[in-house]
Amino acid sequence: MTHVVLDGTLIESDRLAGVRDNGNDLWFSQKHKAFGGHVQFLAAPDGTPLWVSDVEPFHARSSPRNRH
């Protein structure tokens, strides 16, 4: 395999529990004005799923571990 595809999507849901240190709701995205979580996945070039992450709060998608 010469390469893989890393992508992600936002999954909206009903309100979830959790608060950040600053008091804001952990699972609310100001950008999307919605509650939910983020899922990332790796796929082979033909689209075959190789790995799917656990659901994380919206803000977790900007984690430095995802930047290269």
Question: Quick recap of the structure?
Answer:
The chain is mainly beta and 68 residues long. It has strands at residues 5-12, 28-29, 34-43, 49-52, 56-57.
Give a topology summary:
Elements: E1 5-12, E2 28-29, E3 34-43, E4 49-52, E5 56-57
Antiparallel strand pairs: 1-3, 2-3, 3-4, 3-5
Tell me about this structure.
By secondary structure, the protein is mainly beta. The chain is built from no helices and five strands. Strands 1, 2, 3, 4 and 5 form a five-stranded antiparallel beta sheet that branches. Strand 3 (34-43) and strand 4 (49-52) form a beta hairpin. The protein is elongated, with a radius of gyration of 14 Å.
What would the average pLDDT be, to the nearest integer? Answer: 80
Percent in helix? under 10%
What is the C-alpha radius of gyration, as a whole number of Å?
Answer: 14 Å
Q: How do the SSEs run, as a string of H and E? A: EEEEE
Task: Pick out its properties.
disordered C terminus; elongated; mainly beta
